[in-house]
Amino acid sequence: MWLLHVGNLVADEAFFMTGANAVTASNSNPDSSRRTMVMVSALIEHPTEGLVLFETGAGKICPAVWGPQLNDIFAREDYVEDQELDAATSKTGNKIKDIKAVIMQEGWSILWY
């Protein structure tokens, strides 16, 4: 099994931690902390089925597919071509065309071609 680094997103930490960045009576304007999330896919070599990909990541067309509203909430950070699924798969010595099945974790659209 290989873990593939397929991108980074940054968002307000209140999306992940209940009460984060909350307003209180003594602090009506708190600092808004943001968190960077590493997107990871898993490439699994199944003994009978072949290569199985768990999660696809966002891909280079993510900003166009998601649109400005979602990109404003979950912004891509430090994007490089090496995070593309085909490049990340190649680093394992495999080819993207050899993947036999894809398992989607979050129900996201498949955002790579």
UniProtKB/TrEMBL annotation:
It comes from the Eukaryota. This is Uncharacterized protein.
